């Protein structure tokens, strides 16, 4: 049995379209031009405050407005976080298979805990997870290792695997001292070879078998 913790955005769900819509609503209110989806994907990973900081820098908005725009983004995104967000193909079947094999599952994301819980519930993912650590659950967020440590402590298995899609995830796993499995179809900015990883995969249909292969080698 293993404890397997997943990132959320870009790993379990494709949430970029909802993030884009919310960000562009806030930008419009601030008198700034909108962002295309590719630009928003480049901003994703560190949570809403870093995302907003990058967006403001790109639009030359005064950083004195940062706290207010972050608060507005949280409000707007919270109202429409599942309008366009979709679960990646094969995720639900893979989670069910992993649970059936006796593994315990959790989520560790830099998204604030409340919208993360809403997304998991609204998209039918919540029943598969025993632990959720959000970006505001602790005083720090990834790539600090503390959120991962908290997630794995809540699951209590001896073998720990972390699944993510980004540089933040790879670095958090490295700092936490756990094996990192890279989902290559998410929101990373770097080549796959540049991210430290135990293994990588591009489709969830193959993921349970990958886990079993890795565990057999332990």
TrEMBL record:
- Superkingdom as given in the UniProt entry: Bacteria
Which GO annotations describe the biological process of this protein? carbohydrate metabolic process; DNA repair; glycolate biosynthetic process
| Any GO CC annotation of this UniProt entry | cytosol
Cited Pfam families: HAD_2
Q: What broad class of enzyme is this?
A: hydrolase
- What are the binding positions for Mg(2+) in this chain? 7, 9, 165
**An annotated Gene Ontology molecular function:** phosphoglycolate phosphatase activity
EC number, UniProt record: 3.1.3.18
What cofactor is this protein dependent on? Mg(2+)
Q: Which residues form the active site?
A: 7 (nucleophile)
Q: What is the catalytic activity of this protein?
A: 2-phosphoglycolate + H2O = glycolate + phosphate
The alphabetical list of record keywords is: Carbohydrate metabolism, Hydrolase, Magnesium, Metal-binding
Pathway(s): Organic acid metabolism; glycolate biosynthesis; glycolate from 2-phosphoglycolate: step 1/1
Report the coiled-coil segments. none
Q: Does this UniProt record's set of keywords contain Chloroplast?
A: no
The UniProt similarity line reads: Belongs to the HAD-like hydrolase superfamily. CbbY/CbbZ/Gph/YieH family.
Outline what the protein does.
Specifically catalyzes the dephosphorylation of 2-phosphoglycolate. Is involved in the dissimilation of the intracellular 2-phosphoglycolate formed during the DNA repair of 3'-phosphoglycolate ends, a major class of DNA lesions induced by oxidative stress.
Q: What is this protein called?
A: Phosphoglycolate phosphatase
């Amino acid at each position: 049995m293993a404890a397997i913790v997943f990132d959320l955005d870009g790993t379990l769900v494709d949430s970029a379209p909802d993030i884009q819509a919310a960000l562009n609503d806030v930008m419009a209110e601030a008198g700034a031009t909108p962002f295309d989806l590719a630009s928003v994907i480049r901003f994703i990973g560190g949570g809403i405050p870093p995302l907003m900081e990058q967006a403001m820098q790109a639009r030359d908005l005064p950083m004195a407005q940062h706290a207010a725009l972050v608060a507005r983004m949280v409000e707007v995104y919270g109202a429409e976080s599942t309008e366009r967000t979709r679960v990646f193909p094969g995720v639900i079947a893979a989670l069910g298979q992993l649970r059936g094999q006796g593994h315990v599952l959790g989520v560790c994301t830099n998204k604030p805990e409340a919208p993360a819980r809403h997304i998991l519930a609204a998209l039918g993912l919540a029943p598969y997870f025993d632990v959720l650590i959000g970006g505001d659950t602790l005083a720090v967020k990834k790539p600090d290792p503390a959120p991962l440590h908290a997630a794995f402590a809540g699951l209590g298995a001896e073998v720990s695997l972390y699944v993510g899609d980004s540089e933040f995830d790879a670095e958090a796993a490295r700092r936490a001292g756990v094996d990192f499995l890279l989902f290559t179809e998410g929101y990373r900015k770097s080549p796959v070879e540049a991210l430290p990883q135990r293994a990588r995969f591009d489709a969830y249909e193959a993921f349970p078998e990958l886990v079993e292969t890795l565990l057999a080698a332990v």
